[in-house]
Amino acid sequence: MRAAPGQRRRGGAGPHAGRHLFRPLLDHHGEGLTMAEVQTKPMPVPDNISRPYWEGANQGEFRFQRCSACGKAQFYSRYACVHCHSTKHEWQVAVGLGRVASFSVIHRAPLSSFAADTPYVLALVDLDEGFRFMCNVLNCDPATVKIGMRVRVCYETRSGTEQKVPQVEPAKS
Ligand SMILES: [Zn+2]
How far is the CA of 28 from the centre of ligand 1 (A)? Predict the structure, then answer.
């Protein structure tokens, strides 16, 4: 029996509605998640707004948007400026240096595909160009990561894909 549209809406806001918050992380292909897919790390699906960023990553460039109206940087890429709502922006290439603003050491992986990486560092990094970037801090002992530490962008290659994923590692001073 089919539910009337009104009933279906109420059902959708029921006690399990909150689980949909996690769907983009767990299931980027849409419906029909299988155990085989859980074994693979989530990968980006570039769209018209994010494609310059992901193409840049494959060329070793960390690209970001700078608003043509107010001059402020924004990250991640969006259709309109988060500061002034202008839709005019240009893509620039970051030098790739920044500082750790905050971080957590992850001991219990959210997906089985990350289990082999534990413990690993999830960080918020302030790039010198003036925007914040969430990423992993690679190529170091997690116990050595500190707030304020200088880091630089590096590019992770994940198995089964040609797409490189921007991350950071300690900057050698
Ligand atoms: Zn703006």
Answer: 30
- Expressed in angstroms and rounded, the spacing between residue 108 Cα and the centre of ligand 1 is 39
> 96-173 maps to which CATH number?
2.40.50
Burial of 157 (0-12, 13-18, 19+ CB in 10 A): exposed
What is the whole-number distance in angstroms between the Cα of residue 152 and the centre of ligand 1?
Answer: 26
Mean of pLDDT values over 121-150: 97
Tens-digit pLDDT profile for residues 56-108: 999 999 999 999 999 999 999 999 999 999 999 999 999 999 999 999 999 99
The number of C-alpha atoms within 13 Å of 140 and in the hemisphere containing its C-beta is 22
Domain edges within the chain: 47-94, 96-173
Ligand 1 centroid to residue 74 C-alpha, Å: 9
